[in-house]
Amino acid sequence: MSARKLMVIGAHSADFVWRGGGACAVTTTNGGSAKVIALSYGERGESGELWKEEGQTIENVKKIRHGEAARAAEALGASFECLDLGDYPLDIDTDGLNLISEKIREFGPDVLITHTDTDPFNPDHPIAYAAVNRARGLAAGAGVSSAFKTIAPPAFYLFEPHQPELCNFTPNTFLDITHVMDAKRTAMQEMKAQKYLQTYYDQRADHRGNHARRSSGNQDIRQAEAFQRVTPNVVSAL
Q1: How far apart are CA 147 and CA 136, in angstroms?
Q2: If 0-12 CB within 10 Å is exposed, 13-18 middle and 19+ buried, where does residue 152 land?
């Protein structure tokens, strides 16, 4: 996961922080680049604290959420862009699909990360998965020459959902984020509209750190992020 170029695409503006913030920081501290794409700001379904303010508006919520995400990405050394496609429901038409594909094509990531294909508690997340997976295929052109510009197929990973056991998530990759955990905490603290998730994902990093230690024998790992690799891993030796 120490790829030169990492792209994380989330349904909402905060998704990358909780589930792939460590991956972003690891990539950038290793001299690579990380780009975060949010398909929406989560202005309707994931900004409950902001809507408690009297006279709140959609546009103001979007502005606040953009600032939070941009500062969080900066703390991780990543760039942030929101396509503002709307949430609850997230609805991606052909133009939206082409836009996502073009963003992937422009950046040319070595690694692409998004949601699982199942989430019984968040209807936007599977929609994001389907769009990103399809856009990835369009951008890469199935790894062969096409009538349009294509990129080398990026390694494709799914980040850990909030309820992994209920989302068909089986981790097969643990990323050591011990040395960047402080940066991830700083990024999470920027997401003030969802403060309730900060403690949860801090604890989850410790939990996955234990799994990583047991899997590798490396006792120096304290925190980790879990991912499920979708595309085959091509190697020259086992």
Answers
A1: 16
A2: exposed
From the centroid of its chain, how far is CA 166? 19
Separation between Cα atoms, residue 23 and residue 27, nearest integer Å? 6
Q: State CA 228 to chain mean position distance.
A: 12
* pTM given for the model: 0.95
Say if residue 1's pLDDT is above 60. Answer: no
Degrees, nearest 5: CA angle 115-119-121: 125
- Position 195 confidence tier, pLDDT thresholds 50, 70, 90: confident
234 vs 237: CA distance, rounded Å: 9
- The C-alpha atoms of residue 30 and residue 232 are separated, in whole angstroms, by 24
Helices (H), the chain: 15-29, 58-76, 94-107, 124-140, 181-190, 196-216
* Sequence-distant (≥ 6) Cβ neighbours of residue 70 within 8 angstroms: 80
Q: What is the pLDDT of residues 74-121, one digit of tens each?
A: 999 999 999 999 999 999 999 999 999 999 999 999 999 999 999 999
Give the domains, in start order, of the chain with CATH numbers: 5-229 (3.40.50.10320)
Contact criterion met (CB below 8 Å) for 56 and 222: no
Name the residue with tokens 């794409």. Answer: 37
